[in-house]
């Protein structure tokens, strides 16, 4: 049975478990307080969140893919970076789950390379037209270059053995000189197409998760493949910025071992391509994932593994004097590992349609900033491995930002982030869990994590507040008293934006429609409106007394609010 048929037989059951029966009300939490000190700056409100990625590159230039990219570009004050797999994979460009291809490299009957960039151009043109930047992934291995080319094209579906995806594209090259020349020709082509200055502004990274089955070679073979790729890129553009290794699990034993060995190879190892000491390293990347489950009929998240991955990865980079200032990108940073596994086949992924994904995202990004501050690393970006899946069932429970062109609640968290500019400032919360507590045991027990991230600009301040708990259970809401100190004016315009069951939530509107799989044009228009970020009420002018503003909100569990102050 195909996954779409399984969807219709199972999704209603799991949706009922995850979103209806668990709505039994809990006792109201005690009142929480949030205190913001505008005078105490903690760092830049850098857009580390403005990085996204996905497996399927051919969705990029399709109808809903282009629509979503336009929305992502519009929400960020700086260029959004996009990372995708399969940019060198052999095939005809037909998209499928966890698959894509560009046919960039083939060989003729005599073994002579044939380069075809038209699909890569379609992908990168879509970014550049919107002012976005490729976080260009060098991978995977073209069929003609693979040491084990068959089988090559996989036909995996949700519910099948995940190991089926690791085919001929995951193997080392059969000719490292041809591999180096391929990367040279690729970077040379991009410089000719977009100009030296533009390509100099990109970051390139080699491969994906080489410490697991995405790489079917040895660790030394990966280093060799990396060295030849970097040599080809630098030969085409000496100022190109390149790095890696995008390992899976920054706190796993295999991940830590691989990341350390990779850094040491780049610092002092013998370069396989040049014979010299060391390899180019302009960006360091690793991945971090959480681990949800189903407990007592509802989804229970677990952000502890993800926070530990980030903490340990940061520590490793900071431990070498040669790398402590190099930019770090968390190349995939997500609640779990399989974006294309929907809730019908993976019920623990039922968090993805509603506000649980929103509150989790707000709470984890705040901790990423705090970890970077405490460990003094150059944290540049965290890729949310979530995009969209073209022409799939509505609200299937993929880890995506939109479904059939309709934005899901989680996208509105990024809209909130896009409104936060300037400097981050100090925040204290009476019910905000410490980073250590979250890394040790996530957010369990009787209290929810009611926390905040705040920023100030020249004539504005923003405070993002979340009410998060690992257990995806709704309640009536908790009162939160918000105090903002050191305002330089006597009055401000206060606007509250909200993501909860009634606001910025296309999923709840879709369910009230009867969960249609073939919504009418009028219903689609209503869903599109519901997918946008909503204000709670109209903006109000609020007096400031002795530099202090105090206001109270009631924030439901798994809700996110943004308070924007303008003067």
From TrEMBL:
<keyword id="KW-0732">Signal</keyword>
<feature type="domain" description="Glycosyl hydrolases family 39 N-terminal catalytic">
    <location>
        <begin position="103"/>
        <end position="531"/>
    </location>
</feature>
<dbReference type="InterPro" id="IPR000514">
    <property type="entry name" value="Glyco_hydro_39"/>
</dbReference>
<feature type="signal peptide">
    <location>
        <begin position="1"/>
        <end position="24"/>
    </location>
</feature>
<feature type="active site" description="Proton donor">
    <location>
        <position position="209"/>
    </location>
</feature>
<dbReference type="InterPro" id="IPR049166">
    <property type="entry name" value="GH39_cat"/>
</dbReference>
<comment type="similarity">
    <text>Belongs to the glycosyl hydrolase 39 family.</text>
</comment>
<dbReference type="InterPro" id="IPR051923">
    <property type="entry name" value="Glycosyl_Hydrolase_39"/>
</dbReference>
<protein>
    <submittedName>
        <fullName>Xylan 1,4-beta-xylosidase</fullName>
    </submittedName>
</protein>
<dbReference type="Pfam" id="PF01229">
    <property type="entry name" value="Glyco_hydro_39"/>
</dbReference>
<dbReference type="GO" id="GO:0004553">
    <property type="term" value="F:hydrolase activity, hydrolyzing O-glycosyl compounds"/>
</dbReference>
<keyword id="KW-0326">Glycosidase</keyword>
<keyword id="KW-0378">Hydrolase</keyword>
<dbReference type="GO" id="GO:0005975">
    <property type="term" value="P:carbohydrate metabolic process"/>
</dbReference>
<dbReference type="InterPro" id="IPR017853">
    <property type="entry name" value="GH"/>
</dbReference>
């Amino acid at each position: 049975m195909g996954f779409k048929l399984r969807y219709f037989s199972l999704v209603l059951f799991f949706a009922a478990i995850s979103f209806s029966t668990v709505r039994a009300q809990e006792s109201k939490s005690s009142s929480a307080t949030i205190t913001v000190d505008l005078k105490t700056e903690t760092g830049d409100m850098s857009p580390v969140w403005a990085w996204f990625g996905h497996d399927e590159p051919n969705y990029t230039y399709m109808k809903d893919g282009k629509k979503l990219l336009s929305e992502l570009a519009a929400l960020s004050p700086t260029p959004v970076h996009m990372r995708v797999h399969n940019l060198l994979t052999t095939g005809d460009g037909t998209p499928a789950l966890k698959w894509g291809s560009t046919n960039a490299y083939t060989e003729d009957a005599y073994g002579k390379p044939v380069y075809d960039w038209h699909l890569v151009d379609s992908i990168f043109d879509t970014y550049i037209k919107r002012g976005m930047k490729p976080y260009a992934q060098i991978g995977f291995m073209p069929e003609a270059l693979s040491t084990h080319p068959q089988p090559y094209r996989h036909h995996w579906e949700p519910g099948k053995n995940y190991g089926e995806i690791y085919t001929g594209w995951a193997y080392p090259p059969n000719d490292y000189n041809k591999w180096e020349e391929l990367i040279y020709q690729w970077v040379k082509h991009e410089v000719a197409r977009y100009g030296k200055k533009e390509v100099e502004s990109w970051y390139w990274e080699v491969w994906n998760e080489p410490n697991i089955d995405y790489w079917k070679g040895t660790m030394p073979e990966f280093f060799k493949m990396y060295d030849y790729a970097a040599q080809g890129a630098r030969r085409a553009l000496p100022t190109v910025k390149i790095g890696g290794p995008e390992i899976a699990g920054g706190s796993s034993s295999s991940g830590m071992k691989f990341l350390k060995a990779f850094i040491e190879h780049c610092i002092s190892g013998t370069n396989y391509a040049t014979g010299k000491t060391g390899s180019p390293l302009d960006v360091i990347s690793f991945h971090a994932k959480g681990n949800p489950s189903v407990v007592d009929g509802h989804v229970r998240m677990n952000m502890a593994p993800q926070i530990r991955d980030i903490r340990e990865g940061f520590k490793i980079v900071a431990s070498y004097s040669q790398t402590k200032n190099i930019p770090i990108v968390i190349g995939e940073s997500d609640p779990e590992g399989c974006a294309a596994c929907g809730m019908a086949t993976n019920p623990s992924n039922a968090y993805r349609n509603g506000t649980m994904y929103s509150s989790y995202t707000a709470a984890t990004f705040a901790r990423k900033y705090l970890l970077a501050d405490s460990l003094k690393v150059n944290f540049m970006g965290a890729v949310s491995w979530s995009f969209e899946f073209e022409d799939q069932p509505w609200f299937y429970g993929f880890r995506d930002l939109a479904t059939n062109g309709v934005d899901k609640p989680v996208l509105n968290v990024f809209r909130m982030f896009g409104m936060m500019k300037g400097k981050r400032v100090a925040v204290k919360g009476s019910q905000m869990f410490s980073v250590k507590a979250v890394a040790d045991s996530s957010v369990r027990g009787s209290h929810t994590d009611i926390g905040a991230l705040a920023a100030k600009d020249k004539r504005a301040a923003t405070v993002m507040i979340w009410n998060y708990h690992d257990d995806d259970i709704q309640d009536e809401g908790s009162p939160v008293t918000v105090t903002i100190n050191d305002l330089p004016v006597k009055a401000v315009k206060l606007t509250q934006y909200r993501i909860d069951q009634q606001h910025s939530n296309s999923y709840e509107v879709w369910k009230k429609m009867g969960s249609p799989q073939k919504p009418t044009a009028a219903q689609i228009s209503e869903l599109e409106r519901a997918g946008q970020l909503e204000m709670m009420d109209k903006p109000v002018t609020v007096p400031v007394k002795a530099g202090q503003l105090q206001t109270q909100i009631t924030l439901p569990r798994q809700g996110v609010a943004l308070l924007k102050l303008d003067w």
